[in-house]
Write a structure and sequence with these properties.
single chain, 388 residues, alpha/beta, five-stranded mixed beta sheet, three-stranded parallel beta sheet, 14 strands, 35% helix, globular
């Protein structure tokens, strides 16, 4: 009898141990979702970029300006290399990422790449832009081919978890839209029952489109393409009744169509599309650094500190301003950055409003209202935790 009881207890113990081991094996953190074969060949380095706006250097140094980022992980690799590698869109997306006639990268996403380089090197030109398609972008980040991805990519739970990525604060709150021809008679998605729709494959846009039409009981025929260029070109050539992507992308694409005045963007917003920088999981210091670089652009706007009036604030007696600019304390050192990293960003790239207005604001062909991309103090969603 005693032997029988021992055998039963041993069986129960073996079952419990087996169950725990199975759970541990089911929690991968870095498994790539894209096949390795989609990774691009190492492209030729893009022409050396010039800052979009490079205000004159200030004469008053911030406290700790001689400090160098702490060694370790991705930051150490970037400093040893002497250049940041930033993954960007491989298709022209005017206002966000494109190359001008002089071969210089321009755009909202490009300027956030430059903000990271400025924080690390005090030089926004120490950067290589790595053009990537939608299919290539996450594999490039997972494999370490790039240091950071800033390529109009939507932060989703699936990408955050299953792809082994970490998303920095959203730099642009967007939503999926639909473009149609003005003479089509289409005013709503319901008018598009049975329509053909051009969409880029491998994107959240493709999935959202299916969800929206299914929820409305509508049918449609997706006409998919591997990149934004071919998707837009197919719509422009009349291969589809509609063209869908993020609304910012539609506004940008509109400028590239043969006859922009013949098209319109419907009022409907089909999804939430928070876009921002992403890094590979596994280096919390690098993640913190990118995250606080973005926050620094928000905070600078909230304080009213710009590339043009930075010198005045470097003489401020206000404690919170002095901490933000690295004049007091050691806040930067805790995340592997020099204490004056915010000064470097503002000096070379500007605050969030400067970045937005330079690329998307009223003096650009896009004239995109700030909307949700306003500071929380102005009714938007941009909010920085305290710099203290």
């Amino acid at each position: 009898m005693r032997k029988h009881i021992i055998l039963v207890l041993a069986g129960i113990l073996s079952f419990v141990l087996a169950a725990c081991g199975g759970q541990a094996q089911q929690a991968p953190t870095t498994a790539p979702a894209q096949p390795a074969t989609t990774a691009p060949e190492q492209p030729t380095a893009a022409p050396a970029p010039a800052p979009t706006a490079a205000p004159a250097a200030t004469s008053a140094p911030a406290g700790g300006t001689s400090a160098q980022p702490a060694a370790g992980g991705v930051i150490e690799r970037i400093l040893s290399r002497g250049r940041l590698i930033c993954g960007v869109n491989n298709n022209p997306l005017p206002g966000f990422a494109s190359v001008d006639s002089a071969g210089v990268y321009r755009g909202f996403d490009i300027d956030f790449c430059r903000a990271v380089a400025a924080a690390l090197f005090d030089d926004p030109t120490k950067i290589d832009f790595r053009p990537l398609s939608a299919q290539e972008r996450f594999t490039a980040l997972q494999s370490g081919e790039i240091d950071v991805l800033i390529r109009n990519s939507t932060w989703t739970l699936g990408r955050d978890g299953a792809l082994g990525l970490d998303w920095a604060p959203t730099t642009f709150y967007d939503g999926q839209g639909m473009m149609v021809r003005k003479d089509s008679g289409i005013e709503t998605l319901e008018d598009m029952n049975g329509a053909t729709i051009c969409v880029q494959t491998g994107t959240t846009t493709e999935l959202n489109l299916a969800d929206q039409f299914r929820a409305r009981g509508l049918t449609f025929t997706p006409v998919v393409f591997p990149d934004g260029d071919s998707t837009r070109a197919a719509y422009d050539a009349g291969q589809c009744d509609g063209f869908t992507t993020d609304k910012s992308g539609l506004v940008s694409s509109l400028t590239l169509l043969s006859n922009p005045a013949d098209h319109k963007i419907l009022e409907v917003t089909m999804s939430k599309e928070p876009l921002g920088p992403a890094v590979r999981q596994g280096d919390p210091q690098w993640f913190d650094a990118v995250r606080w670089i973005v926050f620094a652009t928000f905070q600078a706007e909230e304080y009213g500190i710009t590339s043009q009036n930075l010198d005045q604030f470097l003489n401020s007696d206000v404690p919170e301003i002095r901490r933000f600019l690295g004049l007091e304390g050691e806040l930067g050192a805790g995340i592997g950055l020099p204490n004056d990293f915010a000064v470097r960003i503002i000096r070379h790239v500007g605050n969030y409003a400067e970045i937005y207005n330079r690329n998307l604001g009223p003096d650009t062909p896009f004239n995109l209202p700030r909307g949700l991309n306003s500071l929380y103090t102005n009714g938007g969603l941009l909010y920085s935790p305290p710099f203290r």
